[in-house]
Amino acid sequence: MEELTARQKEVLEIVSRHIEEYGYPPTLREIGAKLGVSGTLGVLKHLDALERKGYLRRQEGSTRGITLSQQGQGVPLPIVGQVRAGTLHPAIEDIEGHFTIDRSQMDKGGTFFLRVKGDSMIHAHIVEGDLALVRPQPDAHNKDIVVAMVGGEATLKRFYREADRIRLQPENPNYDPIIVHEGDGEVSIVGKVVGIYRQME
Question: What is annotated as the active site (predicted)?
Fold first, then answer.
């Protein structure tokens, strides 16, 4: 599979998301509207490039004649800032980019990525720079690795609910657990970490 330009990735993402949401592909004009262009000539050029590179197939004579190839069945998910695997840190919600994973690896429910900062989870093989795949959910089981909010700040830790407290446990002996007793404050679960993606170079 050949590398895609940023604009080609954007077109592929528009097609993938439209199919996922509506069950059928978008028209050229619908793609153009998402790209912010009025004509269809530029859209056609991008679709031709995506077809040539093996990401999709087009059927002539059909306004919605776009089929994603098996290789193109990736789902681009947003990277919504960073979460600290260390001390508590204000949550960052700016979308810094997208990372595409295979559709078969994605759970339902608006999964997203957070970029990991810090080294408090290194014994769970989570290091700085990793992309943590997070499935949004409001609760967690003991031992789940979660993204939690404590007093408006975010952290990535292993979750434990104990008698009268919640313990957010790091996986690095150099860090103390974050303990929140009943009445001390609120811990809210942003979601469970269901995957870690890492670039080796």
Answer: 120 (for autocatalytic cleavage activity), 157 (for autocatalytic cleavage activity)
